[in-house]
Amino acid sequence: MVSFNNGFSAVLVGLFMYMNAAAMWIGGVMLKKRKSWVYFFALALLLVNILLTFTDQFGIVDLLTFLFDLVMVIFLASFGGAYLKKS
Questions:
Q1: What is the DSSP string of 18-72?
Q2: Rounded CA gap, 75 and 86, in Å?
Q3: How far apart are CA 19 and CA 30, in angstroms?
Q4: What is the phi/psi pair of residue 25, to 5°?
Q5: Is the pTM of this model over 0.85?
Q6: Distance in angstroms (rounded) separating the CA atoms of residues 87 and 80
Q7: What is the Cβ-side half-sphere exposure of residue 9, based on CA atoms within 13 angstroms?
Q8: Domain-wise residue ranges, the chain
Q9: How many other C-beta atoms are found inside a 10 Å radius of the C-beta of residue 53?
Q10: CB-based contacts of 86, cutoff 8 Å, min separation 6
Q11: What is the pLDDT along the chain (87 residues), one digit of tens a residue?
Q12: Residue 24, CA atoms < 13 Å, CB-side half-sphere
């Protein structure tokens, strides 16, 4: 909950949210390169997002975020063969 005496915290959380959105956008755009490190970068971003979803109070928005991230992990895992070199 944001109150009047923690304005810096609210600004900091907002900044982290923008940084997260930018990292997710960059990861999505870079997936076109079809490199294995890009695949693992995007997968790591999603897994960190899932982990961070559970670090605060859990509500309906968090549930929707978790489900959205989970669907993206499933899609990314299903296309993993296109990014990983076959031995």
A1: HHHHHHHHHHHHHGGG--HHHHHHHHHHHHHHHHHHTSS---HHHHHHHHHHHHH
A2: 19
A3: 16
A4: -65, -45
A5: no
A6: 14
A7: 6
A8: 7-82
A9: 19
A10: none
A11: 555 677 888 888 889 989 999 999 999 899 888 888 989 999 999 999 999 888 888 899 889 999 999 999 999 999 888 888 764
A12: 15
Do 39 and 73 touch, CB atoms closer than 8 A?
Answer: no
Q: How far is CA 26 from CA 21, 30, 31, 39, 45, in A?
A: 9, 6, 9, 12, 10
Residue 60: per-residue pLDDT:
94
Residue corresponding to tokens 């978790």: 66
38 contacts 31 by C-beta, under 8 angstroms: yes
Give the Cα-Cα-Cα angle 27, 20, 68 (nearest 5 degrees): 75
